[in-house]
Design a protein that fits this description.
InterPro entries: PDH/Transketolase (IPR051157), THDP-binding (IPR029061), Transketo_C/PFOR_II (IPR009014), Transketolase-like_Pyr-bd (IPR005475)
CATH architecture of the largest domain: 3-Layer(aba) Sandwich
Shape: globular
Helix content: 25-40%
Pfam families: Transket_pyr
Number of domains: 2
Radius of gyration: 19 Å
Organism: Streptomyces cyaneofuscatus
Order of helices and strands: HEHEHEHHEHEHEEEHEEHEHEHH
CATH class of the largest domain: Alpha Beta
Protein name: Transketolase
């Protein structure tokens, strides 16, 4: 299976030939992969070098002219380092664009903490109007990217080497309880139904969540889009949807498993469930810096995001 980043390069190179207003702005990262596209479209594939503030500014400048920029580098250099430019050049100027990151939270541990970005989604959460996609498979990344190219809004697509074994459909409809398997780029899809709690798996965390909850009487929701947050879908899963009987339905205990900073979406979940007695546990990457390089799988285990660690914490939180 190709990686999400491989698919991004291939599909974006294809879309450049189909969409005359599309442009790609790079900061050396993935420049080799985009070399054929740059030869074919030298005015629309721009490499600014290792100048991340300029990367964002150039992309926003293109948006001001009516182009649809795709701006790409590692997450730590795309969101964290040039955050002021993301806030002002896109947000303050009111223009749209697509930020596509690579590297996830710790895809390349040998790169050290400078190349890790577990706080990227939480940081974007401080800004208005950003759609955030976290695909769990290259097919999903492709579908979400194609959808983003058709719009004019501000979109962040977070790519990772970690991926689920199988892709799930990505569309515009919203999943709901009673329609297992339905999905939506703006809503959570229902993968499994149960009555003793709800576990939301974000992007590449789904396989580990399914393994961790095997045999448990819980609902599992899958999210490839975390902003906007699917408040209605979570309420339905928690038994607070339209027509739900008081005291009936699944328990309003919710666990959110995210491949970035733990607790990033707990405020959104609490707001969604504010009219219902509930508890929310946010699982994800811890705040402590792990200073041994190791491998990605070792970082997952150290943060309790492997199947064993997730099962221990989920069963410890949900009622028996």
């Amino acid at each position: 299976m190709d990686t999400m980043r491989d698919r991004f390069i291939a599909i974006t190179s294809q879309l450049l030939a189909e969409e005359p207003r599309l442009a790609v702005v790079l900061a050396d990262i993935s420049a080799d992969g985009f070399a054929p596209a740059r030869r074919a479209h030298p005015d629309r594939v721009i490499n600014v070098g290792i100048r991340e503030q300029l990367l964002i500014g150039a992309g926003a400048g293109m948006a001001l002219t009516g182009m649809r920029p795709i701006v790409h580098t590692f997450a730590s250099f795309l969101v964290e380092r040039p955050f002021e430019q993301v806030k002002l050049d896109f947000g303050h100027q009111g223009v749209g664009g697509i930020l596509v990151s690579a590297g996830g939270s710790y895809d390349w541990p040998a790169g050290g903490f400078t190349h890790m970005a577990p706080g990227d989604v939480a940081l974007l959460d401080t800004l208005e109007g950003w759609t955030v996609h976290v695909p769990g498979h290259p097919d999903e990344a492709e579908a979400l990217l194609r959808e983003a190219v058709d719009g004019d809004d501000r979109v962040y697509v977070r790519l990772s080497l970690q991926a689920n074994r199988e892709a799930r459909p990505v569309g515009r409809s919203t999943g709901s309880m009673g329609s297992t398997g339905s999905t939506g780029s703006t809503g959570f899809s229902v993968v499994r139904e149960g009555r003793r709690g709800t576990v939301v798996a974000v992007g590449p965390m789904l396989d580990n969540v399914l393994a961790a909850t095997e045999g448990l009487d819980v609902s599992v929701l899958y999210a490839t889009t975390v902003r906007p947050f699917d408040a209605a879908g979570l309420r339905r899963a928690a038994g607070a949807g339209p027509g739900a009987d008081a005291g009936a339905g699944p328990s309003a205990d919710v666990v959110i498993v995210e491949p970035y900073l733990a607790g990033t979406s707990t405020a959104a979940a609490n707001e969604a469930l504010m009219e219902l007695p509930h508890r929310v546990l946010g699982l994800g990457v811890g705040r402590a810096e792990l200073r041994r390089y190791g491998q990605m799988e070792e970082h997952l285990a150290a943060h309790g995001l492997d199947a064993r660690g997730l099962r221990e914490r989920i069963t410890g939180f949900l009622p028996a």
